[in-house]
Write a structure and sequence with these properties.
- The complex is a heterodimer of chains A (about 250) and B (about 850).
- With about 250 residues, chain A is of the alpha/beta class.
- Chain A contains eight helices and ten strands.
- In chain A, a hairpin with a 2-residue loop joins strand 9 and strand 10.
- In chain A, helix 3 packs parallel to helix 5, helix 4 runs antiparallel to helix 5 and helix 5 runs parallel beside helix 6.
- Chain B has about 850 residues and is α+β, with helices and mostly antiparallel strands.
- In chain B, strands 1, 3, 6, 7, 8, 9, 10, 11, 13 and 14 form a ten-stranded mixed sheet that branches.
- In chain B, a hairpin with a 5-residue loop joins strand 16 and strand 17.
- In chain B, helix 10 packs antiparallel against helix 11 and helix 12 runs antiparallel to helix 13.
- The chains are: A alpha/beta (about 250), B alpha+beta (about 850).
- The interface between A and B is medium-sized, with 29 and 28 residues.
């Protein structure tokens, strides 16, 4: 039975890849639930299956076994077109390498999902203004990606991910291509979207500092979910980092 | 609309070279169709106009069945006029002459019909009846007096202007009774009948013409205008037969249109070649657009992955790409129309030279423009269809990849099998050829298309094989860097395929053009050597009779002089149709002293064949006629003579392309007794061994040149004129081939640029490890050279096969039996060109790669 307050449920997820004559088990029986308004970080070493898990819960790939229920819909029952439209309206993505269209301005990149959905962008003026304000790019809305710094490009990507008020925002190593200061700024923005816009956020990261912005940290190793950690509001960031690093050492991840 | 603006137009702006390549492909196809369509229609209209001009308003024409100078007795005029159904009978005498002060031109006009001696053509007319047969547009002065007795003449205004003749001037023409003075009383426009003899034309009173040229009581032609009730096709044919029966076999009663049939037949052969080429240009256009869009999809893999990821459906992606193709198609078609007009001007001019017609007034129809533009849009859309579908199939996961690794998909995995099937099916169809004649041409084009596609599909699975074969060469040229460069072509099979295919098309087109022109020229050269045998070629605007033959034969320095006369004769073809062909009369004895035939087959040996010809009642047929109608030595053909149909036995088949091969050779004796002709058109002269042709030519010119109005040329200069004519005829094909090669150039340049951008980090790493800039350049040039070699080899092989197909098609359609000639030097040159083109194309991308900054490159996303 689906949890009525959950925005995402992963049930016994398995993912196997065939590489030549070998079979690689990227995920082996992952179960977890993300409730509405949660901020979750997924951590693990390289090859632990973090990105694979993100692809599956974002509807970008199909599991070999198991089920994903996103915004109340079983993804395995959806055809490609239905899945795409679900993704369009319910999932926002932020990547390590920004993935903006170089030929569009910041504003146009942000509005792209709206245009793809066939909606009138004028109806989203207010939302656009809020997001530009949130990410601090009101004065740079007319600039193209080549005219923006890495951090600014990532902020545009974040605003694009939020324009449709998605059920869930998925970020894959969003600070991986940024320096520490800029990366921290991006994580603070993610936190703001969670705090101010009540956005559900899932971040995949290998960086303990980035993970401190989440409320819950899930640890993967060799394709399995091996532990969870809850971070409370009253903890200082340094404390959180220490706790996370400690956990990582314990788990030998 | 906004999505279109954001995605489509911005995409065009950021990839100008790619867009240009696609646009060029479409424009090329559109331009070829439009230019060739305009030229064909213009030529057809001009040819139609020629025989419509000849016909004027008359429904039937009476001609003498043969016989120089004899002509038609005037009483036939009244006899014909009295036949029921005939409303009017209009007399005509045709005079070929020159102005007395005119120096015989050394420039002999040459065209696809043979020689063209300009001179002045004059119609001797009855002014009171002439307007019932032909119309003339008066531009100055007046037409001839109704009485038709005065010594006056009306000229075409362009001729008068060329010769500086004013209205009211007196001119002098050469006539049989001496120089004749005529007053210019009127000028007519070079329109309608005024276009005869390319405007070197005039009108004079019938009686004056008959008196001056000893034609009293004789006519050359009687035009008949029928009653309105008899003008339907069936009734007209019935009436024609009645008139023929009433007048007897001394005369031919024909439809005016039959005179134009020969020209349209010749035209259609040339048009077949042009249409085939427009089909090829279309295919090149389709392929270029496909190529370019495929490259674009590859380049934008990550972008499409991202769009899929944020919610663009497959259908939306496909529609997006198709929309880009449609917009490109519209814009390119417009450009193609402009290019097509420009091409049409050149092509029409060239066609005009070949046909000896003025084609400056181009025929352009709205439907042709719309069809051409429509084709452009359709080919852009169709060509982009598969790339669009491939774009739609890009997984959203591609957005996560650092470098867009192209999904090879079914194309690389299974395309080779499809390629083999296509090639096999094409070969089988070519061998079996189960389709009827009228489908053959379309089938031929489709088979060529299938061959191109089949070979293209085989490139991807065979890249490894090619690379292994060519690696030693790359290493030889560029050292270890060459080895690295060579192996790079294996990395992206699809991209390699598209690049090699683009070059392959260019090289194959060049090979086709050179193989066909080589084959044509090879055969033509051999024929011309025989046809224009001897040393001197003597013609005149005036008839050349027996006395000239006698005088030339004994002129100083002349070893032998052989007359030639060619005239139209009606034959009954083996398929039961009556058609006009050319009868070439020779005196076998003198001919053998001056030159030789090029025999394909004989009944009883070459010398026996010539002897049989000399005896009479025997002919040689051309290889074209033999091929077309399945005739051979020993068969008989029926020719219509003055005394009716007569059977001639075929003694030999000879190679002869005069009049596009539609001719027979017969003896001077047969010409005289069966067709009552006495004069020669040409004298072939062989000079004494110790003298040069130039010396003897000068001697003859001094003795007889002015007196007999002779034009004397050495065969060498004549061969050069013919060669020039052939070069002009084929030059347009060369242009198309070169355009295709330029396209291949852009294909390579584009690919290499893309490769280098993708491998920026790798190149930075190599530089960091110690690779010098020169070595980086060598690596890129090596990659390009291997691509060029593969494209070149495949292009030559495919081009040779297609040329062979075309030659066989031409043999089937027109009867030309051409020997397939792939010129070795040019083949080697073509391969060298392919490699050179690849190196030039790689030059700037290589420099760009060499200038990679190591640290920037290593950090490159």
């Amino acid at each position: 039975m689906e949890n009525s307050k959950s925005v995402l449920e992963a049930r016994s997820l398995h993912k196997q890849y065939h590489l030549g004559s070998h079979d690689v088990n990227a995920l082996s029986g992952i179960d977890f639930i993300v409730e509405q308004g949660e901020f979750v970080a997924i951590m693990g070493p390289s090859g632990s299956g973090k990105s694979t898990l993100l692809h599956l819960i974002g509807g970008l790939d199909q599991p070999s076994e198991g089920e994903v229920i996103l915004a109340g819909k079983r993804l395995s029952l959806l055809k490609d077109r239905q899945l795409t439209i679900l993704r369009r309206r319910n999932v926002g993505f932020v990547f390590q390498f920004f993935n903006l269209l170089p030929t569009l301005t910041a504003e146009e990149n942000i509005l792209l999902p709206i245009l793809i959905d066939g909606q009138n962008p004028r109806k989203f003026e207010e939302r656009l203004k809020i997001l530009l304000d949130l990410v601090g790019l009101t004065d740079r809305r007319g600039h193209r990606p080549e005219q923006l710094s890495g951090g600014e490009q990532q902020r545009v990507a974040l605003a694009r991910a939020l324009i449709t008020e998605p059920a869930i925002l998925l970020a894959d190593e969003p600070t991986g291509n940024l320096d520490r200061v800029t990366g921290a700024a991006i994580m603070r923005l993610l936190q703001r979207s969670y705090n101010e816009l009540k956005q559900t956020v899932i971040v995949v990261t290998h960086d303990p500092f980035a993970a401190t912005y989440a409320k819950r940290v899930i640890f993967l190793k060799d394709g399995c979910l091996i532990s969870e950690l809850h971070l409370t509001q009253d903890m200082e960031q340094a404390q959180k980092v220490a706790v996370i690093i400690d956990k990582i050492r314990q788990l030998e991840v | 609309m906004q999505l279109t603006r954001l995605l489509t137009f911005r995409s065009f702006r950021t990839r100008p070279l790619r867009v240009l390549l696609s646009a060029f492909g479409v424009a090329l196809g559109v331009a070829a169709i439009l230019a060739i369509g305009i030229t064909n229609q213009t030529a057809l209209d001009a040819v139609t106009q020629v025989f419509q001009n000849a016909a004027g308003k008359s429904n039937l024409v009476i001609l003498a069945a043969g016989a120089d100078r004899e002509g038609i007795p005037e009483n036939v005029l009244s006899r014909a006029g009295r036949i029921a159904g005939i409303r009017a009978a209009i007399p005509l005498v045709q005079i070929q002459t020159i102005l007395t002060d005119e120096v015989p031109s050394s420039a002999i006009g040459m065209n696809m019909f043979g020689l063209d001696t300009a001179g002045l053509l004059i119609y001797g007319i009855d002014p009171s009846l002439e307007d019932q047969a032909r119309e003339y547009k008066l531009v100055a002065g007046r037409l001839l007096e109704q009485s038709g007795e005065d010594d006056e003449i009306v000229l075409v205004d362009s001729f008068a202007q060329d010769k500086n003749i004013q209205l009211g001037n007196s001119i002098q023409i050469v006539s049989d009774s001496g120089d004749l003075n005529l007053k210019v009383v009127g000028l007519i426009a070079k329109e309608g009948a005024g276009q005869f003899n390319n405007g070197n034309f005039g009108l004079m009173p019938l009686i004056t013409a008959q008196k001056a040229f000893y034609r009293q009581g004789k006519l050359d032609q009687i035009d008949l205008v029928v009653d309105a009730e008899a003008s339907s096709t069936d009734k007209l044919e019935q009436l024609r037969a009645e008139v023929q029966s009433a007048l007897g076999n001394n005369y031919s009663v024909v439809f005016p249109a039959s005179q134009g049939r020969r020209m349209t037949q010749m035209l259609s052969n040339y048009q077949i070649g042009l249409n085939f080429l427009s089909g090829m240009a279309l295919f090149v256009g389709v392929f270029l657009v496909y190529n370019s869009f495929s490259m674009t999809i590859l380049e934008r893999t990550r972008e499409f992955g991202m769009l899929r990821m944020i919610g663009m459906t497959r259908a939306q992606i496909v529609r997006q790409v198709m929309l880009e193709a449609a917009i490109l198609g519209i814009l390119s078609s417009l450009f193609g129309l402009v290019l097509g007009f420009a091409l049409a001007v050149g092509l029409s001019k060239m066609m005009g030279v070949v046909l000896a017609l003025d084609l400056s007034q181009m025929s352009l129809s709205q439907s042709l423009i719309l069809t051409s533009a429509g084709v452009g849009i359709v080919i852009a859309i169709l060509a982009a269809l598969i790339p669009a579908i491939q774009a739609g199939r890009i997984s959203p996961l591609e957005a996560f990849r650092i470098r867009s690794s192209p999904h090879q998909g079914w194309f690389v995995r299974f395309g080779g099998y499809l390629g083999i099937v296509l090639i096999l099916v094409s070969i089988i169809l070519l061998i079996i050829d189960p389709f009827p004649y009228d489908v053959q041409f379309r089938l031929g084009s489709m088979v060529v298309f299938a061959l191109f596609l089949g070979v293209t599909l085989l490139i991807a699975p065979t890249v490894g094989f090619w690379e292994r074969i060519l690696r030693p060469l790359a290493r030889l040229l560029y050292g270890n860097s060459g080895r690295l460069g060579s192996s790079n072509i294996r990395r992206a099979h699809l991209r390699t395929t598209l690049t090699v295919a683009a070059l392959m098309i260019g090289v194959s087109m060049i090979t086709v053009v050179w193989a066909i022109t080589g084959s044509f020229k090879g055969d033509l050269d051999e024929w011309l050597q025989g046809y224009m045998g001897g040393d001197l070629y003597i013609t005149s605007n005036m008839p050349m009779g027996q006395d000239i033959w006698r005088r030339l034969s004994i002129a100083p320095g002349v070893f032998a002089a052989a007359p030639q006369r060619y005239f139209e004769v009606e034959w009954l073809s083996p398929v039961g149709e009556r058609e006009n062909i050319t009868f070439m009369a020779i005196d076998p004895s003198s001919y053998s002293k001056v030159t030789r035939f090029t025999f394909s087959e004989t009944l009883a040996g070459e010398s026996e064949a010539i002897q049989a010809l000399d005896r009479g009642d025997n002919i040689f047929i051309s290889s074209v006629i033999a091929e077309k109608y399945g005739l051979k030595p020993g068969d008989s053909v029926v020719l219509k003579t003055r005394s009716g149909d007569h059977l001639f036995q075929i003694q030999a088949v000879v190679v002869d392309y005069y009049n596009q091969g539609l001719l027979v050779h017969g003896s001077w004796l047969d010409m005289s007794r069966y067709f009552r002709h006495e004069d020669a058109n040409v004298f072939l002269v062989k000079v004494q061994p110790n003298l040069t042709p130039q010396q003897v030519a000068q001697s003859i010119d001094e003795l007889y040149g002015k007196r007999d109005h002779l034009t004397i040329r050495t065969n060498q200069s004549l061969l050069e004129s013919v060669s020039l004519l052939m070069d002009q005829a084929f030059s347009m094909f060369d242009v198309l081939a070169i355009i295709a090669l330029i396209v291949g150039f852009f294909g390579i340049s584009n690919t290499l640029t893309m490769n280098i951008i993708e491998r920026t980090r790798e190149i930075g790493m190599l530089r960091g490890m110690g690779m010098t800039r020169d070595q980086v350049v060598a690596m890129i040039l090596s990659e390009a050279a291997v691509l060029g070699m593969i494209g070149g080899i495949l292009g030559i092989v495919l081009g040779a096969v297609i040329a062979r197909i075309m030659l066989v098609a031409m043999t089937n359609m027109s009867g030309y039996r051409l020997e397939f000639l792939l010129p070795v030097e040019r083949t080697v040159l073509t391969l060298a060109v392919a490699i050179i083109v690849s190196q030039i194309a790689a030059f700037f991308p290589a420099l760009r790669a060499a200038r990679t900054r190591i640290l920037e490159a290593i950090q490159y996303e």
